[in-house]
Write a structure and sequence with these properties.
Layout lengths: L9 E6 L7 H8 L5 E4 L8 E5 L2 E5 L12 E4 L5 E2 H14 L2 E5 L4 E2 L1 H14 L11 H9 L12 H9 L3 H11 L7 H9 L2 H4 L3 E2 L1 H10 L4 E4 L24 H7 L6 E7 L2 E3 L12 H9 L12 E3 L1 E2 H11 L3 E5 L10 E7 L10 H5 L3 E6 L17 H14 L2 E6 L7 E3 L1
Parallel strand pairs: 1-10, 1-11, 2-5, 2-10, 5-7, 6-8, 7-9, 11-15, 14-16, 15-18
Antiparallel strand pairs: 3-4, 12-13, 16-17, 18-19
Guanosine-5'-diphosphate (GDP) binds next to helix 1 and strand 3.
């Protein structure tokens, strides 16, 4: 390779647990070397936090790469476009001088979808999924049924109106909304809602698949940013307590036809959190769990809900690495483990084969088997080199790496961009 030839890299970040692993922070750091950053699934159910010089920013829809003017930010055709959130984030992006292209084919979340999401959760009562109520399930339903409003339809009243009226679409949705005891939005009211977005969206519309293909031909560095996590994946999560999209690199393959990656970086906390309903085998329903929630500030970045906390579950993490195609892990929030009176890690479920799929049935009945680890007291949030971590912390990480058979490439010791140690 001559000096002038740049080595390109195509990397993917995915959540390797139940979401909120720290994808935002690590995505921000890794995007330093990216020419393009691409959101590829989910919607505004995501909440990705980054902290730069003490300032906290939460992104729901646009890639966290908008913080770097050198990065071109794409939102792909499998991402659900929440227009109210988009409006807010485009304003942030403008201040940052960010470059943004939104795929014209991306499905639009209509107010009706949020009504259906909310109505269903209300009707389900105690068996509710605990969704973010951002209309995610109902919008993906329409996507798969092949009748949905595309972002590219939001360029004029005429085009939006036509999309709403396609083969009885709005009529059918209205019946659904009524069944769920919500007040349906009329055609006229929806058009008025759409009015404020046409001029906003038009300048950002594009063909992200073509842009990615061209970027690959030009040997650019591309970073794909996932949302949620493998344990919330529509296929691999414990249905129905999951989200409605594929959260693995399968969604990158499907969206962009990209099959070769340099790194598939799984992000995982040094413990586990979960927000919403559904089985959580290692959940700590006690003062240790509360302590982790307080120290780790474990409250939802999208809904503000308190997150349940529990010990690291290596059965789930190994499954997530396998299903997610993870080639390396970055472990976040190790600092939160400092000062705990005891540290446990789940290394198996009684009578469950190590290769078993973690279905609802398996997770609901799982009896975790734990290993106990030595604790450490010293504050590690200011440590700047991996080697300077307490020996107990290094032992913990070495055990994970060995158990999972996946390399750990970095460890987070605080929320700030700078609080990262490379291994
Ligand atoms: P995401 O959805 O995967 O991007 O994660 P969230 O932003 O929803 O939640 C992760 C939370 O942990 C955020 O508040 C981050 O600022 C914070 N965070 C990330 N990495 C670390 C870390 O290493 N230590 C600590 N203490 N906080 C972290
Ligand atoms: P990020 O990208 C954590 C959870 C919800 C609920 C289930 C279904 O920040 O990691 P949905 O609204 O998607 O239909 O809800 O999925 N959930 C998340 N949990 N982090 C997320 O995103 C999540 N996105 C959805 O709490 O249990
Ligand atoms: Mg989050």
């Amino acid at each position: 390779m001559t000096k002038k030839e740049k080595k390109m890299s195509i990397n993917v970040i995915i959540g390797a647990q139940w979401g909120d692993e720290g994808k935002g922070k690590h995505g921000d750091i890794i995007s330093e070397k990216a020419d393009y950053m691409v959101r590829f699934q989910g919607g505004a159910n995501a909440g990705h936090t980054l902290v730069i010089d003490g300032e906290k920013i939460i992104m729901h829809l646009l890639p966290v790469g908008i913080m770097r003017p050198s990065v071109v930010n794409l939102v792909g055709p499998y991402v659900l476009m929440d227009l109210e959130v988009l409006e807010e984030e485009l304003a942030i992006a403008k201040k940052c001088g960010a470059k943004i292209i939104l795929d014209s084919s991306a499905p639009v979340v209509l107010p009706i979808h949020k009504q259906i999401d909310r109505g269903r959760e209300k009707l389900a009562g105690k068996s509710a999924i605990g969704t973010t109520q951002r209309g995610i399930g109902p919008t993906y339903e329409d996507f798969w049924s092949r009748r949905f409003v595309k972002l590219g339809d939001l360029v004029s009243k005429e085009r939006f109106s036509k999309a709403l009226l396609q083969s009885g679409y709005l009529q059918e949705k209205t019946a659904q909304v009524k069944f769920l005891r919500e007040n349906p939005w009329s055609h006229k009211k929806l058009l008025e809602w759409g009015d404020k977005f046409y001029d906003l969206i038009k300048p950002f519309l594009g063909d992200t698949r073509a842009i990615v293909a061209k970027a690959i031909a030009e040997k650019k560095n591309i970073l794909f940013e996932g949302a949620q996590g493998v344990m919330l994946d529509a296929l691999h999560g414990a249905h129905p307590y999951c989200t409605s999209s594929f959260c693995t690199l399968a969604a990158v393959n499907a969206s962009f036809g990209v099959y070769n990656f340099d790194r598939v970086i799984g992000i995982a906390k040094a413990y586990v959190t979960r927000v919403g309903a559904g089985p959580f085998p290692t959940k700590l329903d006690n003062s240790i769990g509360e302590n982790i929630r307080t120290v780790g500030a474990e409250f939802g970045a999208t809904t503000g809900r308190p997150r349940d906390c529990g010990w690291l579950d290596l059965v789930a993490l190994k499954y997530a690495c396998r299903m997610g195609g993870v080639t390396e892990l970055q472990i976040t929030k190790l600092d939160v483990m400092t000062g705990l009176k005891e540290i446990k890690v789940c290394v198996g479920y009684e009578d469950v084969d190590e290769y078993a799929s973690l279905t609802l049935d398996v997770l609901e009945n799982a009896k975790p088997v734990y290993n106990v680890f030595p604790v450490w007291e010293d504050d590690i949030s200011k440590v700047s080199e991996y080697d300077k971590l307490p020996p107990e912390a290094k032992e913990y990480l070495a055990f994970l790496e060995n158990f999972l058979g996946v390399r750990i490439s970095a460890v987070g010791v605080g929320p700030d961009r700078k609080q990262i140690l490379y291994c």
